[in-house]
Amino acid sequence: xxxxxxxxxxxxxxxxxxxxxxxxxxxxxxxxxxxxxxxxxxxxxxxxxxxxxxxxxxxxxxxxxxxxxxxxxxxxxxxxxxxxxxxxxxxxxxxxxxxxxxxxxxxxxxxxxxxxxxxxxxxxxxxxxxxxxxxxxxxxxxxxxxxxxxxxxxxxxxxxxxxxxxxxxxxxx
Length: 173
Prior knowledge:
Layout: H1 10-13, E1 17-19, E2 30-34, H2 47-56, E3 66-70, H3 79-89, E4 95-98, H4 101-113, E5 125-129, H5 138-148, E6 154-159, E7 162-168
Helix pairs in contact: 2-3, 4-5
């Protein structure tokens, strides 16, 4: 190859910072704990029978797992019932969240993102990586955007070689 005609990887030499949400994925088993079977006639949660369930249930089976607690029946469940579940799960479960598995995944990612020092992205050009080998909820992309926007000079989505502009700080700020 002639001098001056050298192929240069501009992506590798750019000042772009890559934010990869895949790095915030917490491996481990996710479990849905649905209390629908604890309802009387599929409609009513009786305190005495629910407390009996809480006392007799094997909570150790959730050791180290990430647990979403919910009721899939369309009925009113008193808040204290979910509080009892959380109290029983807390000594065993790695994470407990209210809602379905998507809510659980959101909580897991939000907990991880809360640990980031966002100031390290001050005035940076950041690409939030789009492809991932693990499931990343859309809510995590929204959260990372909200967290990065006050710091970055520009924010993009995708891969460094093919990005979609999301935000660019106005020049006068």
